[in-house]
Design a protein that fits this description.
- By secondary structure, the chain is α+β, with helices and mostly antiparallel strands.
- It has four domains: 242 residues, Immunoglobulin-like, CATH 2.60.40.1760; 317 residues, TIM Barrel, CATH 3.20.20.80; 75 residues, Immunoglobulin-like (Sandwich); 74 residues, Sandwich (Immunoglobulin-like).
- It is 19% helix and 29% strand.
- It contains 13 helices and 46 strands.
- The strands form ten sheets. It has a nine-stranded parallel sheet with strand order 29-28-27-24-20-19-18-31-30.
- It starts with a strand and ends with a strand.
- Bound molecules: ligand MIG.
- Ligand MIG binds next to loops.
């Protein structure tokens, strides 16, 4: 028998020797907590603005209890199995009842041989918990952060343990840099989300062991997960980002093009890059400084020869529209007299060995020590160190190596870190290290720069979208990595992280001209738009591949710049709802069977569909268009959806389609954001049913919009009738004119 007691939003439960509770967070979110020990472990993922509320009723029934809200019914059976139903009583997500059938990889003879040789042939793992859910009619799993492979994660096995592995990352990789223990299940008739709020090493077996069930296991900690009910994937993402937070609107310039390289190691080199950008008319807003700008890799320093008078240099660059982002790694060089090391040692801010001495490992600066970011004082100190960079004119911070990575073997599990005021170990804090580093960076930049911080990180956890953008780490200039970039960014987007991108052109290995051309076509649509490459590989700036590729490159960077207002509007929507900028087709076409497993297409918002060429030598692309009517963006040809088409795609053509009935706002091509004053807003109308579009405008930089200093315009257009209205007016600047261009018939309408 389950005994229960209602306490606020919690239904405390007890049955046999199991103890726990269900907490109603909202009418569509329930938290399941089952105690393994009494220690409460905070991951920092759940926003402190989440205050459980929502009506519910508890009923006793034969063999357990039911808890119902207006959106779901939860059954807790006497054996403590928990099932979720919709309000009509249809089972949506049930605990698995049968026996686990472990994968049989070793025959009896194999086992005997292994044991004879003194190896263990045991198949039992030593997990703190394993939650096993019935597979039922789940046809796809999405989310799980930055995992490699395909859009649909069903049938694969993953681990959550932030990992820096520079080998070419392929679909067999279990873990990468980020851990986001959130999954969306799509079933034949419904969908749901599960978020496991656990920072320990986790295992997500999405049906690799069995067709009958999938499981989530952890090396330590209590069962603590959130079930999210919803009728479509968008709902699930909204609820998940209600729990773990949403981005703040980025500064407008961060949506422009970023050029990076490991490394532009002197002022001369940087100047040359900047000059070439303008000379070749490749729009560019940001240049990244990788580790070699520092003095001996000491964070918060500049090499005083190669970057002498860095502030003057950065100010010069800014006159030509360039903003500088500098890399900051967590490893602090062990060197007496170096202020960061000295201050950290004096205050006890670095991770420690179990015996209390400061832990050391090797990273870029040589012997280094590691800030204890789980401690609030350490975060504040680290954040304040950014003042020196802000004072020099640095506009954004790039956080790398924060898995944390190390050269002399991984950090042992028992290294002492803090989680708030509590001392704990690396085992608990490993997956949170990048998250807390990004938080420290964000808060420091916010305090000292005052503008909306731009942070880019390699490692992170659930909820990091509140502080940072992310790139997918060390890919290679390989076609397979261009292919996998699409599902990887889509799954990150569905995992609450909207501002993401890959190293365009590939980080390791050499890009061919053809690969570069295809990567820029796909990459110009990723929210974070950065070309980056590794030391020792072929230089990868746009002009390194000959005239044909340079022209193609320009065409797509220019396309991106014209779409900046559309991107900004999507970020505005994302800030309010969590719905990402990049979307798999399944987000808007939930019943479309093809969309379930579509790996080489994506949508930008609801109106733009991109089907990039991602294979070597291909000049015709098989494109799937979902139901409705679509315009070819370049030819304006109208095509019936609900079918595959073959699209001619010579090297300069990326298949892009616009949904009929769309309005797309556009800016003129600029070499950088702010180069031109925009006094006219142009919207392209793609005829169809009545088009409606909400456009957002603010200063693109400060937090004033949060006090209402922004404008929102609503445009409607059904061919002959066009209308503009203010939904909100709080920003003094307004467009002098708004023009709706019916691109497909050549008619221009002025409002
Ligand atoms: O050990 O800072 O993923 O983007 O260029 C390599 C040098 C360290 C890894 C990052 C990469 C960066 C590189 N870093």
């Amino acid at each position: 028998m389950v005994k229960y007691l209602i306490k606020g939003q919690k239904i405390l439960l007890e049955s046999c020797d199991v103890k726990g509770y269900i907490e109603i967070i909202s009418e569509d979110i329930a938290r399941v907590y089952i105690e393994k020990d009494s220690l409460i472990r905070n991951t920092g993922a759940i926003c402190n603005t989440v205050i459980p509320s929502g009506d519910f009723k508890v009923n006793e029934l034969n063999g357990g209890i039911t808890i119902s809200t207006s959106k779901m019914i939860i059954k807790v059976r006497d054996n403590f199995k928990i099932d979720f139903y919709d309000i009509d009583g249809n089972a949506i997500c049930k605990d698995y009842e049968g026996n686990r059938t472990r994968k049989n990889r070793l025959s009896e003879i194999d086992k005997a041989l292994l044991e004879q040789e003194g190896h263990s042939a045991a198949e039992e793992e030593n997990y703190s918990f394993t939650v096993i859910k019935a597979m039922a009619d789940a046809k796809a799993f999405y989310g799980l952060g930055d995992k490699m492979g395909y859009l649909n994660k069903k049938g694969y096995m993953y681990e959550m343990w932030n990992t820096d592995n520079p080998d070419p990352q392929l679909e067999h990789f279990k873990a990468l840099y980020k851990s986001i223990p959130f999954m969306i299940a799509l079933t034949e008739s419904s969908c749901y989300g599960l978020y496991f709020d656990t920072s320990y090493h986790l295992y997500f077996d999405m049906g690799s062991e069995s067709d009958e069930y999938y499981y989530i296991a952890a090396e330590e900690g209590n069962i603590d997960y959130y079930y999210i009910a919803g009728s479509n994937i968008c709902d699930i993402i909204k609820e998940y980002t209600y729990l773990t937070g949403r981005i703040n609107l980025p500064q407008l310039f961060t949506l422009g093009y970023h050029q990076s390289r490991w490394s532009y190691a002197s002022k001369d080199e940087v100047r040359e890059i900047a000059e070439n950008m303008r000379k070749n008319r490749i729009p560019c807003d940001v240049i990244h400084f990788d580790i070699d700008y520092m003095d001996n890799y000491k964070v918060f320093t500049f090499d005083d020869k190669r970057f002498e008078k860095a502030d003057e240099f950065i100010s010069d660059l800014s006159k030509d529209g360039f903003k500088v982002v500098t890399i900051i790694d967590p490893g602090v060089k062990k060197e007496e007299g170096y202020f960061v090391y000295d201050e950290g040692i004096k205050n006890g801010y670095f991770a420690k060995n179990p015996d209390g001495t400061v832990y050391e490992n090797e990273v870029w600066p040589g012997e280094s020590v590691f800030p204890d970011f789980g401690n609030e004082n350490v975060r504040k100190w680290w954040g304040d160190l950014h003042k020196q960079l802000v004072d020099k004119g640095v506009r954004g911070i790039w956080n790398d190596m924060n898995e944390p990575a190390s050269f002399k073997g991984p950090l042992p599990e028992d290294i002492i870190f803090s989680n708030g005021d509590r001392q704990t170990n690396h085992k608990e804090m490993h997956n949170l290290y990048g998250h807390y580093m990004a938080e420290a960076t964000y808060e420091g930049m916010k305090k000292h720069d005052k503008r909306r911080p731009f942070v880019i990180t390699r490692a992170c956890f659930a909820g990091s979208q509140r502080y940072t953008t992310a790139w997918t780490g060390d890919n290679h200039s390989l076609w397979v990595h261009l292919q996998m970039a699409v599902p990887q960014l889509l799954n990150l987007s569905m995992s609450g992280m909207p501002f993401v991108g890959t190293d365009i052109g590939g980080f390791g290995s050499d890009a061919t001209p053809e690969l570069m051309a295809r990567w820029i076509q796909a990459g110009c649509f990723s929210p974070l738009f950065r070309n980056h490459s590794a030391m020792g590989t072929k230089y990868q700036e746009p002009w390194r591949f000959g005239k044909e590729v340079l022209d193609i490159y320009r065409k797509y960077v220019e396309l991106r710049y014209t779409l900046i207002p559309y991107y900004y509007d999507l970020f505005h929507e994302c800030e309010k709802t969590g719905i990402p900028v990049l979307r798999p087709l399944i987000l808007h076409y939930g019943n479309d069977k093809v969309a379930v497993n579509l790996n080489d297409e994506f949508m930008v918002g609801e109106s733009i569909l991109v089907s990039p060429v991602v294979s070597q030598g291909q000049t015709k692309k098989l494109v799937y268009l979902p139901e409705g009517k679509w315009y070819d963006y370049f030819t304006k040809e109208l095509i019936e959806g609900g079918q595959y088409i073959i699209k001619d795609s010579p090297l300069d053509t990326c298949p892009v389609f616009i949904k009929a009935g769309s309005l797309i706002p556009k800016y003129p091509v600029m070499q950088y954001i702010g180069e031109k004053q925009i006094d006219t807003l142009e919207l392209e109308y793609y005829p169809g049913e009545k088009a409606e579009y909400v456009h957002y405008l603010d200063d693109g930089e400060s937090f004033d919009y949060q006090e209402g200093k922004y404008n929102c315009y609503k445009f409607t257009c059904d061919g002959d009738n066009v209308k503009k209205e203010f939904v909100h007016k709080g920003y003094e600047k307004d467009y002098k004119d708004c023009i709706i261009k019916n691109t497909c018939t050549g008619v221009v309408k002025t409002l």
